[in-house]
Amino acid sequence: MKESKAVDTAKRARKGVVQVLYGRTVVVLLLILIQACMMAALVNYMRDYAVPIYMALMGIGTIAVIYIINQKGNPAFKITWILCILIFPVFGTVFYLFVKMQIGTKYLKRRLFKLREDTSIYMKQQPEVFKELQVSKPANANLSYYLSKQLDFPTYRNTEVRYFPVGEKKFLELLRQLRKAQNFIFMEYFIVERGYMWESVLKILEQKVKEGVEVRFMYDGMCSISKLPYNYPRVLRMKGIRCKMFNPIKPVLSTQQNNRDHRKICVIDGKVAFTGGINLGDEYINRKERFGHWKDTAIMLKGEAVQSFTMMFLQMWNLDERIGESFQKYLTPLSKENGRDLGFVIPYADNPFDDENVGEEVYLHILNHAKKYVHIMTPYLILDNEMITTLTRAVKSGIEVIIIMPHIPDKKYAFALAKTYYAELIEAGVKIYEYTPGFVHAKVFVSDDDTAAVGTINLDYRSLYLHFECGAFIYRNQVVAEIEKDFQSTLAKCQEITMKDVKGRSILSKVTGEVFRIVAPLM
User: Fold this and answer.
1) 64 touches 96 (CB < 8 A)
2) Exposure pattern of 212-245 as b/e (b: 16+ CB <10 Å)?
3) Alpha carbon of residue 233 to chain centroid
4) Collapsing DSSP states into helix, strand and coil, what is residue 102?
5) CA neighbor of 187 nearest in space, from 302, 268, 266
6) What sign has the CA pseudo-torsion 272, 277, 282, 287?
7) What CA dihedral angle connects 156, 157, 159 and 162, to 10 degrees?
8) H or E segment at 63?
9) H or E element: which one contains 46?
């Protein structure tokens, strides 16, 4: 009997290895690798074969460096590109030209701008709400003006906010709200992995389709690498769920595949919305342990601010649609009364093609206008100069700044890189703690007992510059007290990192982090 089980196990293992070796994922990765090798070989051939060509490319490289210096954008990205061109003159120049000449990203930029134009009529700021925010806190009114005028993300009243300190609680409430759906369900997630969490959600979605509820589901194409079969959208469509994969991984060398949909959005009937760090996978509800206890957070909105999340979803859904749709039917009317006890809520989204670093602007705003403290939870710490300057200036101005990081990382290279920022921050007065029970995946800023931001945006270059992201800025809502209470509860389970800890790191960790910091903007 035992031998039979052993044989079955061996067969399944061999079958799994065969599926991996001959599966679509490996084929796609191999084809991309072959293209990269061909590009490198071509460059090397040109370098060795023809001096005039090499000199011409050197000239182009010089022009490229001058061009990069004079372009608007983050200096860290410029330095990385310049180093790439100086160290690898031919390959660096060719690669830079290749990136800048991408047709796909230019199309996406035009398409996103058109969709924003088409939906702006539904995203108008109510003047009376803006005036009340001006009276309450002029600095926040300035942020509101920026988000509304530049990006069509208005400020709302009349919105209840509920905070979930762990994925398990968010999951249970998500199931409850999905069961209540009567008209439509929109879901957009970065990671979907088959297991208890996803199967529980899927079961409800299938039932709602049978009841006549419109269900749309969208997930990022990175899931096709290891989480889901490439044809999974077709599987869901056969169940009656309208499904699409954003930016599917294809066997083509393209920088467009670097821009992932990192959002986590669920909208139900235009009345309820969820966002935060929690994806649809069992580790997010601690049903499967990967890096110790998984600490994550989310919020649920009920009321007028849901409208912005509805529109965020529809804009992303329609990126590749040729026929327009009626947005109005998915929106709820705004109230003429202002729920003063609910404060102000500003949902916002960020994309890599609008030349606006929305997520970072919100975080910098909180740091710049804090009077007592700013408390932060983030899984990654890969900072640009603006963020380092603002964090250190805040603490030097007497503001308490505390950052909670994971103690057990999910990506060791990212953790080694994060530690290269510890010394500078700690020396300035920033307090850094690590969550000893496991991994922190939360993306939370909370300040002065009256302000918070919760969403999908990490403190790293990918979230702040390269991904599609979303979040909510919350001011004078009672939920802020709950967020700060959770921060303090989490802090009690952390250990403070001292300069002694920083200096005591292994040589390998130090060298790895410092090498990766050279290319940090690409990570």
Assistant:
1) yes
2) ebebbbbbbbbbbeebbebebbeebeeebbebbb
3) 22
4) coil
5) 266
6) negative
7) 90
8) helix 51-70
9) helix 24-49
- First vs last C-alpha separation in the chain: 50
pLDDT recorded at residue 354? 84
DSSP 332-366: -PPPSS--GGG-EEEEEEE-TTSS--HHHHHHHHH
For 29-106, where are the E strands, in sequence order? none
In this predicted structure, the answer to whether residue 42 has a pLDDT above a threshold of 70 is no
Instruction: State the DSSP H helix or E strand holding residue 57, giving kind and residue range, or none if neither.
Output: helix 51-70
CB-CB neighbours of 19 under 10 Å: 11
**Contacts with 172 (C-beta within 8 Å, 6 or more apart), sequence order:** none
- Alpha carbons 224 and 261: distance in angstroms, whole number: 13
For residue 179, give both structure tokens.
Answer: 């069961």
Helix, coil or strand: residue 294: strand
Sign of CA dihedral 276, 281, 285, 288: negative
The dihedral sign for the CA sequence 247, 251, 256, 262: positive
Cα distances from 69 to residues 66, 74, 81, 369, in angstroms, run: 5, 10, 10, 31
Q: Could you report the per-residue pLDDT of 458-467, keeping only the tens digit for each?
A: 999 999 998 9
- Contact in structure between 385 and 76 (CB atoms under 8 Å): yes
Q: What is the pLDDT of residues 347-393, one digit of tens each?
A: 999 999 888 999 999 999 999 999 999 999 999 999 999 999 999 99
Residue 86 CB neighbours (<10 A): 11
Question: Measured between alpha carbons, how far is 163 from 320 in angstroms, rounded to an integer?
Answer: 33
Q: Which two structure tokens, joined as six digits, stand for 122?
A: 């539904």
Residues comprising the chain, all counted:
523
Q: How many CA atoms lie within 13 A of 95 on its CB side?
A: 22
Mind giving me the DSSP string for 228-272? Answer: S-TTHHHHHHHTT-EEEEES---SS--GGGG--B---EEEETTTE
Cβ-based neighbours of 419, under 8 Å, separated by 6 or more: 502, 505, 509, 513
219's enclosing H/E stretch is strand 214-220
Quick one: tokens of 278?
Answer: 């929690």
Q: Any idea what the Cα angle at residue 179 is, between residues 336 and 294, rounded to 5°? A: 95
pTM listed for this prediction: 0.86
**Phi/psi of residue 126, nearest 5 degrees:** -75, 120
Q: How many Å apart are CA 355 and CA 93, to the nearest integer?
A: 23
